[in-house]
Amino acid sequence: MRTQGKQEEDSELELALTMVNELALSKKGRYLNEIETIVFRGAWYGQSYEKMAQNSTYAQSYLHNTVAPDLWKLLGEIFGTEGRIGKRELRSYVSRIVKKVGLSSIPILGEPPDICSFYGREGELANLKAQIVQKRLIYVYGEAGIGKSTLIAKLFAQISQGLSQGFDFLVWKSVCYGPDVEELVASLYKMLNLEGDEKANVSGLINQLRWRRFLIVLDGFEAINTKQRRDYMKFLLHFIEEVVDGCLILMSREFFLELSVLLNSRCISTIKLEGLDIQSAMQIFESKGLSDYKGGSKAIELIEYYRGNPTELTALAEKISCFFGGSIEKFYEYKTTFISDHSQSAFQQLFALEGGLSDFGREIVIYLASEISKESKPVDFSNLLGIFSRKTDLSTLVRELENLEGQSLIEKKNISGEACYMLPPVVKKYVLSQALVQGTGLRK
Ligand SMILES: Nc1ncnc2c1ncn2[C@@H]1O[C@H](COP(=O)(O)OP(=O)(O)OP(=O)(O)O)[C@@H](O)[C@H]1O
Ligand SMILES: [Mg+2]
């Protein structure tokens, strides 16, 4: 359990890092990269290079002799000091400046989720901070529970508390109830207190936003149905055409193929959010009190098995703690696949007969689950062609496979030049355990 003192210390470090990153961006055109951030953090806590190396995947000599000297020079340059700012004086110097400059707080409209725990994601945050000043639209997608909302909530918190990147305001809007564009626009008018200024329609809203610097997040975009998406595409095109300085972040469990037409634009980017890296995921095991996670190959195997998904790993660690006395070794004697309640309900929505997957999509997933459970190896594309080409044409099959991949339901690997398909273990478990396979005639 983290003590309050430790939390304050951490948030002081986060503020310092935010300020250093802002300065680095304005003076050097970039943020600190992942490895510089590791050295900065280590130096902040007075760690030796040996300790920093133990906590990372980099060699001690590389951190000490290559990364650190360049970082001290960079800090000296961005703070405009005569010489370098080295390891020993870093913390006192940077804290003093943070206090002196003071931290402006930017208003957040709407309610980002609370952040209960947050590990890793330094690279993703640095990337997002660079993108929000360059892009008009960022589409963040990834499977349920992978940490999309938490990541963007963290970004909001850092921007709001840190030196403003010149943003006037930040807006958090959930669209998980599937509003039409008109409903969304009316709701944004209300949140921004624009009622009465202009007609509450798309053009009016965009006129109001055109010259402002803002960040608007629409969370839960997967709830926007196929029929509504056409209007949303028009709205987005209009938005990126007209808005000069603001950025819209869309978050979704799936990648909509309709978006592909927008991707040629330089002011749009898409980010597929993957799971946590091994080190950060280990912190979940630590926080749940597992006794034998350190240095164990089984802990790494579990993290990879669950694709670093923090929701799955948290649920798993709680089960291990509750039923196996916190021992991964003991759990391994009976190893099984657990599905968190969060994913279970996401799958139920997806596999529901209405509004979820297409019939063909379900059929492919069920077939893959059945094949993989028999053979325990990926299914190659020619196998799928052989099975499905009798009932559909090639382009429909390819499009459906792309769709399923965009929903993180299937995974594609290239093996000896051929596309091969697998299912993430939790998807396979869900499909097999829900008896979706029965009655399809696919499972022998
Ligand atoms: N970086 C992280 N470190 C530790 N825990 C995390 C991290 N990111 C997410 N989590 C945990 O995982 C859970 C799910 O995260 P989050 O709600 O952000 O997922 P999501 O991708 O938005 O899911 P959904 O698609 O269902 O909205 C949260 O309860 C959070 O505590
Ligand atoms: Mg979310």
Automatic annotation (TrEMBL):
SUPFAM superfamilies in UniProt: P-loop containing nucleoside triphosphate hydrolases
Q: One GO MF term, please?
A: ADP binding
What Pfam families has UniProt attached to this entry?
HTH_VMAP-M9, NB-ARC
Q: Which InterPro entries match?
A: HTH_VMAP-M9 (IPR058651), NB-ARC (IPR002182), P-loop_NTPase (IPR027417)
Which part of the chain is the vWA-MoxR associated protein N-terminal HTH domain? 13-96
- NB-ARC domain boundaries: 136-219
PANTHER family hit by this protein? HTH-TYPE TRANSCRIPTIONAL REGULATOR RV0890C-RELATED, REGULATOR-RELATED
**Mind telling me what this protein is named?**
NACHT domain-containing protein
- What is the scientific name of the source organism? Pelatocladus maniniholoensis HA4357-MV3
